[in-house]
Design goal:
- By secondary structure, the protein is an all-alpha fold.
- The protein has helices at about 1-10, 15-25, 45-50, 60-65, 70-85, 90-100, 110-115, 115-125, 130-135, 140-150, 150-155, 160-170, 175-190, 195-205, 210-215, 220-230.
- Helix 3 packs across helix 5.
- The radius of gyration is 18 Å and the shape is globular.
- The model has no long low-confidence stretch (mean pLDDT about 95).
Length: about 230
């Protein structure tokens, strides 16, 4: 089925869009997406392909996730999410293990953001969170972003403790993509419980990287934003 998926994606490739996406996702030498290859396909169209091939085997998904082509990896993840959602607890454990084994190939921010909360985060909701803290302490950029974004599942369920702990762990992370992810999740907490977010920001705003802080306080009223940005 891998060959059929590959053929379908190639049939809707857009070379001009691929050039734009290659720039947007920083694929140049030394950039975070170095070496990533794009076909130039929109996410809605990739979802259609994923739905068509929802019966793909884990071997097919393994081949997709090992591909250097970005859309191959995203379609593989979208199929995996679909399988996870329909699975019983044993199946969810299997698919989560598969996801964790392929972290080295979940290596751009959209791949992380579209998958981490729906697989790893959902699976970890009622389990020990040591694994997430380990990922947050990883030297691998994408493992750290996965740790942050997985907690979106907890936030949706009204639980903030793990997100706040990971945010504290990553206060001094050097990468902009982590600053953005942490700030985003803090903002999501604020949508559920503004006081919980404000307590964190009030305590750490002087330490937070500027990008993280800006993302976090985006929905604050203007006087509060000026107060925290004026630190």
């Amino acid at each position: 089925m891998f060959k059929a998926i590959k053929k379908d994606l190639e049939s809707i490739a857009d070379p001009e869009r691929a050039i734009l996406l290659s720039r947007f996702f920083k694929t140049g030498p030394g950039q975070y997406g170095e070496g990533d290859i794009f076909l130039g396909i929109t996410v809605p169209n990739q979802r259609k392909v994923a739905k068509k091939y929802s019966g793909a085997s884990l071997d097919d998904l393994h081949r997709l996730l090992q591909s250097k082509v970005h859309e191959h990896r995203l379609v593989g993840l979208l199929i995996l999410i679909g399988k996870y959602k329909k699975a019983d607890q044993a199946g969810k454990k299997l698919y989560t293990g598969f996801y964790l084994a392929h972290i080295p190939h979940i290596n751009n921010w959209d791949l992380v953001d579209l998958s981490a909360g729906y697989i790893l985060g959902d699976f970890m909701r009622d389990k020990d969170k040591t694994l997430l803290y380990k990922l947050a302490g990883s030297r691998n950029l994408w493992a750290r972003r996965i740790a942050v974004m997985a907690t979106f599942a907890f936030i949706r369920a009204g639980s903030f403790e793990v997100t706040l702990k990971i945010a504290e762990m990553l206060l001094h992370d050097r990468h902009d993509l982590i600053h953005k992810a942490v700030g985003w999740m803090l903002r999501e907490i604020g949508k559920k419980d503004l006081a919980a977010e404000e307590a964190f920001v009030d305590k750490y705003h002087k330490e937070m990287p500027r990008t993280m802080l800006r993302y976090a306080i985006e929905r604050f009223d203007e006087p509060k934003r000026r107060h925290y940005l004026g630190r």
